[in-house]
Amino acid sequence: MPSFDVVSELDKHQLTNAVDQANRLVGNRFDFKGVDARFEFQGDHDVIIHAEAEFQVQQLLDILRNELVRKGIDLACLEEGEVVEANKTARMPVKLREGIDSDLAKKIVKKIKDAKIKVQAQIQGDQVRVTGKKRDDLQQVIALLKGAELDMPLQFNNFRD
């Protein structure tokens, strides 16, 4: 029986490349000469933006966004924290979300059931497995989910006939 998985994943290699490239750009920019401005990884999916003032943090955030888009990472997975200023420095945590949480998985399953397509959708951890008898039905579900307004970028993998 044909099936596929709906997932939301980040390419960790491209994420690392984007942050490294953003750090290089900051080092070369004239307006950041002599300023302690940088991006720092904390864990797998958290980036801390360091600068001397809040407006510089916002500029660094724009640089990071541009590099993420250039590397093919969807900006919908960004979750920006509050800017914290202390001791002549400003920091902003940026979390890059990965995986489908249970609320979003329930929304996806409900959207598929409301479309009255002859497929079954079941939640399996941080992904949703969709199975059906016809390949065309599965392709309809993919088109439906691509057009849906969801707050996370989705990928479709393990398409099996």
- Give the N-terminus to C-terminus distance in angstroms: 7 Å
Multimeric status of the protein: single chain
SS strand fraction: 25-35%
The assigned structural class equals: alpha+beta
As a whole number of angstroms, the C-alpha radius of gyration is 20 Å
Shape: elongated
Largest sheet, in brief, is:
5 strands, antiparallel
In sequence order, what are the helices and strands, one letter per element? EHEEHEEEHEEHE
Strands, count: 9
CATH architecture of the largest domain: 2-Layer Sandwich
Helix content: 25-40%
Total helix count? 4
What is the CATH C level class of the largest domain, in words? Alpha Beta
In terms of per-residue confidence, which ranges show pLDDT below 50 for 5 or more consecutive residues?
A: none
**Total count of domains:** 2
User: Mean of residue pLDDT?
Assistant: 87
Secondary-structure map:
Blueprint: E1 3-7, H1 12-28, E2 38-42, E3 46-51, H2 54-70, E4 78-80, E5 84-86, E6 89-96, H3 102-114, E7 119-124, E8 127-132, H4 135-147, E9 155-160
Antiparallel strand pairs: 1-8, 1-9, 2-3, 3-6, 4-6, 5-6, 7-8
Helix pairs in contact: 1-2
Keywords:
single chain, 2 domains, 161 residues, 30% strand, elongated, 5-stranded antiparallel beta sheet, Alpha-Beta Plaits, alpha+beta
Structural notes for this entry:
The chain is an alpha+beta fold. It is built from four helices and nine strands; from the N terminus they run βαββαβββαββαβ. A hairpin with a 2-residue loop joins strand 5 and strand 6. The model has no long low-confidence stretch (mean pLDDT 87).
